[in-house]
What we know:
This protein is of the alpha/beta class.
Amino acid sequence: KEKNASEPEFIQAATEVLTSLEPVFEKHPEFEKASLLERIVEPERQIMFRVPWVDDNGKVQVNRGFRVQFNSAIGPYKGGLRLHPSVNLGIIKFLGFEQIFKNSLTTLPIGGGKGGSDFDPKGKSDREVMAFCQSFMTELFRHIGADTDVPAGDIGTGAREIGFMFGQYKRLKDVYEGVLTGKGLTWGGSLARTQATGYGLVYYAQEMLKDLGTDFNGKTVAISGAGNVAIYACEKAQQLGAKVITVSDSNGYVVDEEGIDLAAVKEIKEVKRGRIKDYLNYRPNAKYVEGAGLWQAVKVDVALPCATQNELLIDDAKALVANGTMIVAEGANMPTTLEATQYLQENGVYFAPGKASNAGGVATSALEMSQNSQRLSWTFEEVDEKLHNIMITIYKNSVAAAKEYNCEIGGKTNLVAGANIAGFMKVADAMMAQGVC
Ligand code: NDP
């Protein structure tokens, strides 16, 4: 904690994982001797670099770029690139750390990494975004590769940014390889990648509901965010007969008791790159509220936080419990604070941690890597089916690990502990086999 005192999000993520692993270390004294914990919390490599670019007024802007290559025990580093003004080393480290366990849970051979920049793509012209992305890749290209480190999208990095970065990588390296995932369909992308995180989240939540003896049909759902994860979680939940009544962005939230009009949200966010308050132009009877407070404003069966870290706080957890919410499944990375997570779990809400429930995105990215290596493209249905099976497996493996170590809380399986243990065991085995490195 002292070494990383300036990185509160990283300490938060590490505390959660290390607490869950206590029973594992009791059972496996050899892990202690091999200092696996001390090794796993230290990134193998972290890179920070200057990203200069020229804005539309001819002025040179300077951002800071990051890539944290956290753990390559089970495969090449894999994890997204976040472009958001809040990005700093601590944020990228917490995301990279989570990614180690998430990637392990997918059952696919990918290590953990994460990167990004404090650049804000919002309000920038396409040319400015391209100038930034080209400059960013002009440094990053020397550290990544299809068998070394394969970055992907995240907040602020969508198909447009991945395209600009891929183009620059190709110019600099003169190889056409699957070095980034989330690519366009005509140049190496995978069908169903866009939908994967949101769909995967709902597939995972479906398994949770099944264990509670029910399903999505007729359930009321609250979703935060209105980005990639939120949109496709909403789409799949609606397909399964649920009524989604909220979406949000960092300015405020919408409540539509008649059910969210997803076509309107897609047009606002994917086509017009607008703000969620514009939803009222499509549905004047809906309500828009400026600021936070979504979780306390509605009574729902299922809550899917899909915006950003630490957006669901203790008072939100109390409101969800008081309103009889059955499950909370994280679509974003660490959207629920440790205190709120514990409160939900202790009060009988069945809770899924993001590293398990949002792993569908990176799993499908790994499927994109497989298709690139084989120079093949699978159909939407093939990818979707693989994704669905992976989410079921992640759920089952988490439950099995929780049962093996007697991890129950509030009368439910402790999926936080289960996911941490299941994710850790595979990485631990590989690290033990590979010696001191
Ligand atoms: P996007 O950039 O597409 O969307 C993020 C959404 O969340 C935007 O609507 C954004 O609004 C909103 N948001 C950001 N901050 C806040 C806030 N403080 N309060 C309310 N809304 C907010 O990102 P993604 O959908 O891709 O990512 C969302 C989360 O899911 C992140 O935690 C990401 O790490 C995680 N994730 C994403 C995966 C993927 O495949 N995309 C995979 C696994 C995890 P605004 O426009 O105002 O910023």
